[in-house]
Amino acid sequence: MLNLVLHVFDNTVRFYRLLISPFDDGEYAESRFFSTATPVLPVDPIEQSKRLAAYQAVDNHVKPEHRIIGIGSGSTVPYVVERIVQQGAAVNKGRVFIPTGFQSKQLIVEAGLSLGDVDQYPTIDVTLDGADEVDHALNCVKGGGACHLREKVLAEAAQTFILVADHRKNVQYLGTNFAQGVPIEVVPFAYAKVLQNLHHILGSPKATLRMAIKKAGPVVSDNGNFIIDAPFGREHMLDPYVIMAQIKMLTGVVEVGLFCKMAKAAYFGNADGSVTVRWQDGKVEQISPNQTAAGTPV
Ligand SMILES: O=C[C@H](O)[C@H](O)[C@H](O)COP(=O)(O)O
Could you give the ipTM of this predicted complex? Predict the structure, then answer.
């Protein structure tokens, strides 16, 4: 990985850290955990798209009166935290931030924000989270990072649930680009039985146990469970609620990474610098590059 770090001082002695880094998909680059005292200015176009979406969503939905804020997981969410920090210490002092897993807990702590948990705050003002794919009706796939159990709890707890993503995630039907399948969290001892049911009863013959990359054996979630990835055909994704409910009924399944119509809006950063917003009522809004929040002060 090439990391070129430039420290630029202008005549007001402001400090920028510019990072050229070909982040791999799904890799939560350490560089994105810097506090916004030294904001990371992404030059990778996909990173730029994630940042556009995150900044716009924060500006539109994280208001000074919001006190309890849910922070999702993934590689788009660090930009959410970055923008929230830019709202200033005064407003953030009175806020509590609820993480959806280990990564977002680290983000909150390293940004100097106050940490809480959903068992202390079962009602959340607004939760912002990433997605693996979002369809035209705001159904989405989540769990590419195995965080979807906690993410769904925080989505349900939120009065407003907002998705942020780059343009690759904006699809008509789930399964278009994200082909690895629906993430399913299962208790470890039940995984073989759940796999059998997925293969032979629910029609996902290619469902597999997710294996770890830098560890021998399966991925283990933050909750100590295994993850199955189950691809389903287009016929199931026309209205994914049905298959979501069927999977959830399998004994041993803890949670399914299909979030059906839970979000109020989904923000997608586009390659041309614009932002597309899909709203719950079906409206689609285009925010042109010169009207987006990215690059502007809060
Ligand atoms: O389990 C992980 C989460 O559902 C993420 O929010 C999802 O995988 C999207 O992550 P990213 O923003 O890195 O694409």
Answer: 0.98
